[in-house]
Amino acid sequence: FRMADDATLADLLARYAAPAARTDELITTLDLDASHPLPVAPWFEPGASWSVRRTLLHVIGETAQHAGHADIIRESIDGAKTMG
């Protein structure tokens, strides 16, 4: 992601609104117990599958981790601490 020089906070929030709304829709309509196969990758066991619930929890965890990284960068720039 690279923010354009002429982008505003309103622009960024507008770009985020559609995927956020779609995520909300999926969370409320999908069967959380349904299972889906994982792609072939060295970090997954062959033939492994996850439930929709586990996938959503994984996405939430990844998002929180990356938000934490962004907060560390922001703290190094402005010195403000948000958690004490």
TrEMBL record:
It comes from the Bacteria. This is DUF664 domain-containing protein.
